[in-house]
Hints:
The structure is a single chain. With 410 residues, the protein is α+β, with helices and mostly antiparallel strands. It folds into 3 domains: 17-103, no CATH class; 141-249, Beta Barrel (Butyryl-CoA Dehydrogenase, subunit A, domain 2); 263-409, Butyryl-CoA Dehydrogenase, subunit A, domain 3 (Up-down Bundle). Helices cover 45% and strands 12% of the residues. The protein contains 13 helices and 8 strands. It is globular, with a radius of gyration of 22 Å. The model has no long low-confidence stretch (mean pLDDT 88).
Amino acid sequence: MLDWLPRTPKASSDALLSLREDLAAFRAAIRAWIGERLPSDWLDRLRGADHETYVAFQKWWFAELSRVGLATPHWPAEAAGVELPLSGQIVIYEELARAHAPSPTLYAFSIYHVPATLLHAGTEEQRATYLPGVQERGDVWCQGFSEPNAGSDLASLRTRAEKVEGGYRVNGQKIWSSNGADADFCLLLARTDPAAPKHKGISYFILDMRSEGVDVRPIGQANGESEFNEIFLDDVFIPDVGLIGKEGEGWGIAQATLAAERGIIIFELVERLRLAMDAMLHKGVTEEPGWWRNDASRQQFLTLYSEMRGIQRLIRQGMESEGDPLVASLVKVAYGELLQRYTDWVVRSGGLAAQVAEPLALGTGRHGEMPMPDYLSSYIWTISGGTNEVLRNIIAERGLGLPRDPVKTA
């Protein structure tokens, strides 16, 4: 199925990480490693491939990154991570973006949400069990937060976890769970005290997706993928060791999980967007006739390009402030809305040809190469990780100090 991929050496290598103190040498070594290990035609080979092929490719690529310490450079030493300084992490993501290397999308929750959650509230046993599983076995995680009637208002969730001998019995339904069909484990929120105020009665669990009573159903999306899933939980047993933190602490712990979606992960995304916009600019200037010669198109593009550069500066500011949650919320709002406007511009500028949805290389789309799927996918970003409406409330209340109810205040 993937016989065109180079064989993975069995032994791990710390040759790249040994250069971490010399950023120029580190950058050059990463660039050479990508050129050696990643086939230049990987995207074309995956275009139109089935889901199983995509999953197999993602697992291969994650194993390659893990072998040389590039999969989890942000993990601290206490999680058996390399604890690479921010400057080194930036080099990694810049080089992966520059090479148009695939993002390990199948592992987004595994490498960001899981450590953020377990290092914040997990037990030593949970950390020792599940963190090595990501790095050594390539365990895939998903997130069980949203429900059909509890999306933006997550605290209204109704999935119930009832205490029984040795653990909990869980019944309910989750929706929009990315990579749920391929996940080994799930970070799950469920209500343990229905009588408590809605933010107080929620607990946080680790769910083994192979447990009896777990039913996962993919959801077909407008962009042609089925990344999202529904998860039905029918009398599923979770042992006591699967509880993260204490009963009723789930809401607070979930904030640490969600913060991971607004951290350095966004840096790579914006860097990839910059490269795509640079390529679009080059194409417009050099082609004849190019969109650059249209005054309206040129003005619209330059406005979007300026916004992108502004977001990059904002991200740097957030990094320098060690993950200020307010800056992270601002970045997430700005990036999601810019992405929608830019992909809309690409489709309109490309005419009818840009409105044809070519066969996808599942989970590997790059801005500008598949205009219509990119445009359709852009709307995910104003919803996932906290809707932009909710984040605007956070910015207004916690950042600007505005009252929750201005009418009553007046």
